[in-house]
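User: Working on a comparison across species. This one is Aminopeptidase P family protein from Pyrococcus furiosus. Can you predict its structure so I can line it up against the others?
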Amino acid sequence: MLNGSEKPKVYVSATPKAHAEPFKDVRIREGSVVSVVIGADWNHYYANMTRYFPIGQMSERAKNAMDAMEEAYAISVEKTRPGVRFAQVEREIQKLYSSRGLGEYYITGYTHGVGLLIEEDPITTIVVPHRAMEAKENMVLAMVHAPLMIPEGAVKKEDTFILGRKLENVTKY
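Assistant: Here's the predicted structure for Aminopeptidase P family protein from Pyrococcus furiosus:
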C-alpha cells in the first residue's frame, strides 16, 4: 500500500477449502497449515502471491504435501514456456502428486492469468478448455496455483510471472 496499491486483496485459508476467506469461527490449531494469498494492484494491474505456513509440529502427510508443493512449483517454473500447452505441465504435476500418494487432495489447474483482475484468462483452475491453450509470450501468469487440500489445510505456493523467453518472477519473496 505504501508503494501505491489501491485495492489490495488478502485471503487467509485455515481450512482445506479451495477459496476459504477468513471465517470468524475458524480456529487455527497445532499441526495446521495456513495459506495466505496477497493480490496487490499497481496502476490498475494486479500481481498475485501465495505462501503456506505450517503451525507447530506437522504430520507426515503435511510434510509430504509441503515437499510436493515445492517440487510442483519447480516443475511449473521449469516447464512453462511459450508454445507449451498448459495441460502438458498439468500432467507433470498430477504425476508428481499421484506418485507421492497425494492425488486425492489435488485441485486440478496449475496456473491462471493475472492483470486487470487478480484472476483472469486463461484460468486453468476453473475453465477446463483453457488447459488445452498454449502459453504465449508476454502472458502474465500466477503459478503454481496447484493447491493440495489436505485435512490439515491448504498447501499452496504461488508467484506472478511474466512469460518471455525466460520467466520473470515479479513477486519474489
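For your comparison, note: The longest strand covers residues 33-42.

User: Helpful, thanks.
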